[in-house]
Amino acid sequence: MSKYQFAASDIYLPGTDIPRNKLGIETSDLLHEVEETLLQQAYTRFIAELDSSVRFDEEYFKSLHRDTFESLYEWAGLYRTVDMSKGGSLFCRAAYLERESRRIFRELEQEQYLKSPDWTTEKLAERIAYYQSELIALHPYYELNGRITRLFFDLIAVYNGYDPIDYSQTLTEGPSGLNVYIEASILCVQRADSSKLRQIVLHGLQNSWM
To answer: Which residues have a Cβ under 8 Å from the Cβ of 203 and sit 6 or more positions away?
Structure first.
């Protein structure tokens, strides 16, 4: 896997791609274990708190990142201030992050935040894939973008009567050496093509009923 490329930043430990953290962890494996524990706790909490008053807006999206990881990172819930790229994919430039984020969530609001229990599974998958693709290309945080973005849309799925989207078959390595989800994400960033992601989400929603 390619590492992130980014402008000078004090977010990371010198000479590494390991973020500075409140626990003083300096190894990737341990840091990932802590992140995963915090994420699983967040799933339990946020699913339990779901009700009709929840607005899947920009502030909610930011709160997921902040409330999940603020015990670990000072910058939890804050958008990055430097440009970042990975493996030839340039994410939204930092100067345009706030503007593009507002556009995405304005569109999402116009679709009632996808709070549509009467939609077919195919329709919900198509709209989730579109907005997930937009947030993948936005890549607003220094780290943990994919996991928080999936959490956000898992909560929308649960609100609409599904289980969290099952990505398990897409997080294994494919012929390219990348997992299928990352391959789909690259298409989202480089070609604005969410078709492969739509197939993943549709399968994940259908599988969640099993």
So the answer is: 166, 169, 170
- Give the domain extent around 119: 4-207
Whether the full predicted model's pTM is greater than 0.90, yes or no, is: yes
Q: Around Cβ 47, how many Cβ atoms within 10 Å? A: 15
Name the domain count of the chain. 1
Q: Give per-residue burial for 57-82: e unless 16+ CB within 10 Å, then b.
A: ebeebbebbbebbeebbebbbebbee
- Domain of 203, CATH number, reads 1.10.3290.10
Residuewise pLDDT in 10s, the chain (210 residues): 345 555 556 889 988 889 999 999 999 999 999 999 999 999 999 999 999 999 999 999 999 999 999 999 999 999 999 999 987 789 999 999 999 999 999 999 999 999 998 999 999 999 999 999 999 999 999 999 999 999 999 999 999 999 999 998 887 765 665 789 999 999 999 999 999 999 999 999 997 653
End-to-end Cα separation, the chain, in angstroms: 32
